[in-house]
Amino acid sequence: VSMEIKKKDARGLVLVLFLGQLLAFSVAAASFASSFLANLGVDAPLTQSFFAYLLLTLVYVPILLHRRQKPRIPWYWYLALAFVDTQGGYLVVKAYQYSSITSVTLLDCWTVVWVILLTWYALGTRYSFWQFLGAGTCVAGLGLVLLSDAKSPDEQGKYATTPSVP
């Protein structure tokens, strides 16, 4: 019995790691695509975000319907959260037109820190050592990206685009 549990736990861990890497790859690909499109002069942040929201809808709505559970909060809270999330996504994609991919990624990485601080303060969420270790790893990676960006000042302006004035 013990061996079966270990195999099941190992499979679950591998699946979680794979899905995490798949998500990280998707975010990196979306960032690259946004930066590339901004360099081409394309100005369509909501259109760029549409496919991410469509994919989320296609995954999570069937799961919700399959479970046949009522949502835990009223529908209008989901609508409000969707509006706020859409605005945040719009601003992140829009930022690629005014800055480099490194700068936008640095700003976007601070999300981890702010979510932990705000949920701890506003919601009273308690985090485990492992969650803090994961967040610390993210912030350490953020610091390394910041150092590598600072080491190459001649490259910083190379990819940044200036907004065109009509």
Mind explaining what this structure looks like?
It is a single chain. The model has no long low-confidence stretch (mean pLDDT 78). The protein has 6 helices and no strands. It has 2 domains: 1-69; 72-154. Helix 2 runs antiparallel to helix 3 (75-95) and helix 4 (101-123) packs antiparallel against helix 5 (129-151). The termini are far apart. The chain has 166 residues and is an all-alpha fold. The relative contact order is 0.09. It has helices spanning 2-39, 45-67, 75-95, 101-123, 129-151, 153-159.
What are its keywords?
0% strand; globular; 6 helices; 166 residues; mainly alpha
Q: Mean of residue pLDDT?
A: 78
**How many domains?**
2
Poorly predicted sequence stretches spanning 5 or more consecutive residues: none
Share in helix: over 70%
Number of helices: 6
Give the CA-CA distance, first to last residue. Answer: 70 Å
Query: By helix and strand content, what is the structural category?
Result: mainly alpha
For the sheet with most strands, the description reads: none
Oligomer: single chain
Number-wise, the strands total 0
Outline type: globular
Strand content: under 5%
